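pasting for the record
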Amino acid sequence: MPVRRAVAIGAGLLTAFLAPGCNNSVTPVELTITVTAVSPANGPLAGGTSVTITGTNFIDVTSVTIGGSELGGRTVVSSTEITGTAPAATSAGARDVIVTSSSHGSATCSACFSYVSSHPFLAVVLAAGGAHTCGLTGAGTAYCWGFNDDGQLGNGTNTGPDSCSGYSCSTTAITVSGGLSFRALAAGYHTCGLTSAGTAYCWGQNDEGQLGVGTATGPGTCGIDGHACSTLPLPVTGGLDFDALATGGWHTCGLTSSGALYCWGLNDLGQLGDGSTTNSSTPVAVSGGLSFSALASGRAGSNIEIFGTGARGPGPPSSPAGRPCASPEAEVVGPEPRPHLRADDGRGGLLLGRQLQRSTRQRFDYQ
């Protein structure tokens, strides 16, 4: 009898423990949330850094905080990944990152994100574009700052984080999103980076196919005229590996280890060197069977271009020899440079806004 009673008592206890609706509130270990890392691990006091939080069991998430403030634009990508933008902070230093779920409790990644009051890196590579600058750390992390109306800072948005004379910009260095590691950078009105494996990524303005992603109509839209762009790094199509990159104003070129040269983007002045004046949103080989050891690009067809014609060159068919297609003189007639810049088009007409920007290929600083 004692044995039978012990067995009965044990079975009863086991049934009570496993019965649904019991009062046991302990979350099973395998369902407990964990937060393992935040990338990038630092950002400016102004906030706005695009971050990726990794861990486990991100289910029924109700709150994600950095230093006690909610993550902006929170997106639960999967049960192991959350993305968003870091909130602003008032002082530098490390902060805890806490993820809370309505069904799986909460977890803390202690001191996983740090706010910095000045640029958090020593740049070993710099690239200056039309109105922005990017730097590369020794660890391969890319930071950009300046004009961001075209998404050329690569932080996932073209609406800030700051405003400069009414235009989107960043007055401090912000991390390029995507967690990529680069060994080289190049910048025009867009930006490109080259990984250690030789893969090219580009972001920013794309209305001429200069990102090399197979389209000139997206993937997003930017600016007051809604032109094509990408606010995040995208891999250049074609499966090519490059040793070097160079960007013009609206085109890009890449040099392979064998010395072959490929270009993509705007080609109205023959910048791509493929024997045509047709734009290409994918890399096309430079014709002639030549082998190159270095490359450089100018804005869009001037004498400092690798290919094309223009100032001090033979001149396009529509202009006298040695003259650019449009008169170099331009006049700013309003507070918004793009829609109000105008110039003689070299044929007795006027060019306005982005039409001027594309057609004259002269330099206009955003002031």
